[in-house]
Amino acid sequence: LSSSVRWKRVLLKVSGKSLMGDHTQNVDPEIIALIAREVATVSRLGIEVAIVVGGGNFFQGSAWVSSGTLDRASADHIGMMATVMNSIFLQASLENAGVQTRVQTAYKLAEIAEPYIRRRAIRHLEKGRVVIFAAGIGNPYFTTDTAAALRAAEINAEVVLKATNFDGIFDSDPKLNAEAILQEHISYRDAAAKGSAMIDITAITLCQENAIPVVVFNLNEPGNISKAVSGERIGTLIDQ
Ligand code: UDP
Sign of the CA dihedral 219, 128, 153, 58? Predict the structure, then answer.
């Protein structure tokens, strides 16, 4: 492992929305190929990469719930299936890029993927395979950010790298305020106080309890995944 690399085992969280790129729905083939190439590069450097992917590109449950069309648990079950679709897509893209990959689902989909087995996931990582954790934690009322934090703690990942469409966390909303300043570092407590717009509060709490730092960064800049993995200052670092 090269000395320029900071982390040995990382948990990469890719939001569903960031897979959309400029498209209005589903998956932008260029973005998913970019992710696959970058993950392939860091994996070849010997870094163990586990991935949790969201589902917002396929299904936005909250809109259906607030309109009264769906109850929360049903919407969340559909949302979890959306993460499975993204996981299979990402697996195929990674294997195209020459990386051995396993998908493990939080509930059984035995014909499609392995069930989540912690020790087995760790074994795959040790063998240099990328492991994608699909279906969140398998329960409604949770998010894939929380799944990322939980799996990171379970597999002893040293960091959660949260890939988004934003450069990081700003002092105010950059969509509303052109002068918003990117914060290079904030504490868990300040991240939680910002509310769930940037990162889920349950996820932040789990990371804090387990002293796992989180880096929020922009996926759309080529090279950013490698930078985040090598510990270059990029995006926002959340820790103590
Ligand atoms: N979800 C869930 N339990 C989990 C993880 C996810 O019920 O453990 C559902 C929830 O409805 C969530 C959706 O799956 O909204 C997709 O995940 P998320 O919204 O976190 O994806 P992202 O915003 O990253 O695209």
Answer: positive
CATH of residue 202: 3.40.1160.10
Going from the Cα of 71 to the center of ligand 1, the distance in angstroms, rounded, reads 15
If one counts the domains in the chain, the total is 1
Question: What would the pLDDT profile of 7-51 be if each residue is shown by its tens digit?
Answer: 999 999 999 999 998 887 799 999 999 999 999 999 999 999 999
pTM, full prediction: 0.95
Per-residue DSSP letters for 56-75? TTT--HHHHHHTTSS-HHHH
Within 6 A (CB) of ligand 1 lie 15-17, 54-56, 61, 75-76, 79-80, 82-83, 136-137, 139-140, 142-145, 147
Mutation pick for ligand 1 pocket among 13, 66, 83 (CB with most ligand atoms within 8 Å) = 83
**Within-domain flag for 18:** yes
Residue at 1 is within a domain: no
